[in-house]
């Protein structure tokens, strides 16, 4: 509460993470009147309806990847997300299933017509938009994502939690500092250091040889943070084993840049926008057209009913 006014509850959607999950989790038998798959569109709408109903945010922002593989991250670690680049794509585009790619513009049009804020930032990932909006927030923040990288934003002192789908959107793990310490041995503030040390093959991050999740957590516990671990490696009097010391020192070039790549930005430039969750659609005529054209049916109805009932 600030000056006697309750700060708004903000929900941030990692949009691509969620529509990918919808695409793979909802049968592609859901089709438009013309026969095109709309499983990702309808699945995401179902997710939004459930999230708003269950968690009652005051503000909702669909955070988008303006750049899914920003050049500044690639410049630091060239292997960053290389495995996700479509082999046939000359422009380095992310590999997206053939029947998902045409649904993304529909998702964007529907969100815009509903009046749900949809925000990206040139040369930044959705994670960076989420990091920036979290840094700016004055009240509780719930981040909805299937990406563990965003655990680094968890902060009990600021009421920042991650809603992480365990099995579908009906079973969301409410990730706070206590849960992170129980599962990973570190809190949110230390998670990025753990991720840098451990590495992540799915993001093309090599990590440090011989250091997995448990060892990374143990080292952070003993030496405080990545800087402390690197200082211990330089100190021949520290308790590090010779092999561990050698591996950390040999990874110096990687560790010089990994924190910048792994940590989400807190200062991405964002356009002006209204995060308030609408009670009625911003553009009902366009929304009606989209509903008819794409056969959005009960999925859109549920979103509209949930928004109106707030």
Automatic annotation (TrEMBL):
**InterPro entries, per database record:** 5-3_exonucl_a-hlix_arch_N (IPR020046), 5-3_exonuclease (IPR002421), 5-3_exonuclease_C_sf (IPR036279), DNA_polI_H3TH (IPR020045), FEN (IPR038969), HhH2 (IPR008918), PIN-like_dom_sf (IPR029060)
The UniProt keywords, alphabetically, are: DNA-binding, Exonuclease, Hydrolase, Nuclease
- List the protein's name: 5'-3' exonuclease
Q: Where is the 5'-3' exonuclease domain?
A: 7-279
The organism is Kitasatospora purpeofusca
Q: What does this protein do?
A: 5'-3' exonuclease acting preferentially on double-stranded DNA.
Please, which domain of life does this record's source organism belong to?
Bacteria
Which SMART domains does the protein's record reference?
Answer: 53EXOc, HhH2
Q: Which GO terms describe its molecular function?
A: exonuclease activity
Q: Which Pfam families match?
A: 5_3_exonuc, 5_3_exonuc_N
């Amino acid at each position: 509460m600030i000056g006697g006014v309750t700060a708004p509850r903000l929900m941030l959607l990692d949009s691509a993470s969620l529509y990918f999950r919808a695409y793979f989790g909802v049968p592609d038998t859901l089709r438009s009147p013309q026969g095109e798959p709309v499983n990702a569109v309808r699945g995401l709408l179902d997710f939004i309806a459930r999230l708003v109903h269950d968690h009652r945010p005051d503000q909702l922002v669909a955070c988008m990847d303006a750049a899914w593989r920003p050049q500044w991250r690639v410049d630091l670690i060239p292997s960053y997300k290389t495995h996700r680049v479509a082999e046939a794509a000359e422009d380095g585009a992310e590999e997206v299933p053939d029947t998902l790619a045409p649904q993304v513009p529909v998702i964007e049009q529907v969100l815009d017509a509903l009046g749900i804020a949809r925000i990206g930032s040139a040369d930044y990932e959705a994670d960076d938009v989420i990091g920036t909006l979290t840094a700016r927030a004055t009240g509780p923040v719930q981040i909805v994502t299937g990406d563990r990288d965003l655990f680094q934003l968890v902060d009990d002192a600021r009421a920042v939690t991650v809603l992480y789908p365990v099995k579908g959107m009906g079973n969301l793990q409410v990730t706070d500092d206590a849960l992170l310490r129980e599962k990973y041995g570190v809190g949110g503030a230390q998670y990025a250091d753990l991720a840098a040390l451990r590495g992540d093959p799915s993001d093309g991050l090599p990590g440090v040889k011989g250091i997995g999740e448990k060892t990374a957590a143990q080292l952070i516990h003993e030496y405080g943070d990545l800087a402390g671990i690197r200082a211990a490696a330089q100190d021949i009097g520290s308790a590090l084993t010779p092999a561990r010391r050698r591996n950390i020192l040999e990874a110096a070039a990687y560790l010089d840049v990994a924190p910048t790549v792994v940590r989400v930005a807190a200062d991405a430039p964002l356009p002006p926008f209204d995060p308030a969750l609408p009670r009625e659609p911003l553009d009902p005529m366009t929304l009606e057209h989209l509903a008819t054209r794409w056969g959005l049916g009960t999925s859109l109805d549920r979103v509209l009913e949930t928004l109106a009932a707030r």
